[in-house]
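Hey all, sorry for the wall of text incoming. These are the two entities for the joint prediction.
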Amino acid sequence: MENWVLEDLVDFESLYNTAPCGLLTFEINGPIIYINQTLLKWLGVSEAEIANKNFMDILDRAGRMYYELFVQPILKMHQEVKEINFNIKTVNGSFSCLFNGVAVDGGEIINATIFKVEDRKKYENELLLKRTKAEEEKQLKSKALQEVSFNQAHLVRAPLAGILGLISLLKPMVQQDEEVKQILDMLQASASELDQQIRAIVDKADFNA
Amino acid sequence: MIDVIKRNNVRVIGEGDQAIILAHGFGCSQNVWRHLVANYKTKFKLILFDFVGAGQSDLEAYDSKRYSSLDGYAKDVLDILEALNLKNTLFIGHSVSSMIGVKAAIAQPSYFKKLIFVSPSPCYINDEEYIGGLDKEDLNNLLELMDSNYLGWSSFLAPQVMGNLDRPELGEELVANFCATDPDIAKEFARVTFLSDNRTDLEKLQTESLTLQCSNDILAPLAVGYYIEKKAKGNTLKILEATGHCPHLGAPEEVIEAIDAYINCA
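and here's what came out:
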């Protein structure tokens, strides 16, 4: 299509202002240069009110710190950031957004888009909450396993060691009685087997804890 | 023995008798020093490295206990200088690394000739009379924001990068996302960085130092610069015209000029 036809069909100024996302141009150190009507509407301010404002002014404190610590360095190093989640302050409260930015004009000017994220943010929060919960549950479980392992290792194996010791003491006393000797041998074998089993459980619990 | 060079992704570049070790701050990697590196590599021997958890350091070497205070990170700096057999170095640290340098210099004064702090703070949290600039709620909100931003980090990518020479593009991708850090490690480092109070270390410091303080830095207000000047013996405070927290990226010329003036005056 010829350019003049395109210009006829698309009113770029109107597109800029009514785009379904916030459009913003600011100096990398903050001062806002252009802002579209969509974003002004979301912020609940007029063009005159935003004129001397800084990009950092529409962020909350954590957002400003995040911008200084991560976003600005990435913009300076790579001229581009994608999908940064910020909270944007408005007249009546705030909204969560995804921020994309490219550095132009030798890196001094940032062109940015701001997408409102509401439902998706709720979904993400749900996922984060579930993850935190899962981690907590895992820790509780691991603690319980450690307790089991401790009980098995110390509290159960100690009396068993006593039994095994007593058997070896009894054995020389019943040399004459073949039947009792056989029973004692069986008792010793069973107790040893039990000891092995407990050891296996302890090892497994330790491994999973 | 631990391979310190691999653990901290240590790189030695440049020509010169005097060594400068550059320690990046929280959330970054050694790549942030590129403007200073370009300027200083013809005059100095430059030691670049990543703290464990950042950049292309060995993530396997991360140890929550060792790195639960800045002392563990200071030990890393000393390990590196020891491995390279260097003493009497110039130390340049950004942000939290300034205090890491202070701790290292208290432990081993002979390793350091002078310390240069870029946007330092001995304590970020306000405490009665002391103005650190932040309160605990700010920190919690920051951690929450970090939780919802992964900055290109991918747990699928990281293990593959290490030693995967046949797929260099993976390494490049991580270099490109130089802020990409294992989120769990980043969170712990954030806590150590912002919750630690290292004010008492300043008085123990015997090494001369320079503070480069930005005007209008949300993470280190001017009061912090004056505090360090007052408490650390032999500290010179230079307030830069640059704003923000990363003047070495935003206004490298001004930073270089101030460092030159400081190291040449002695």
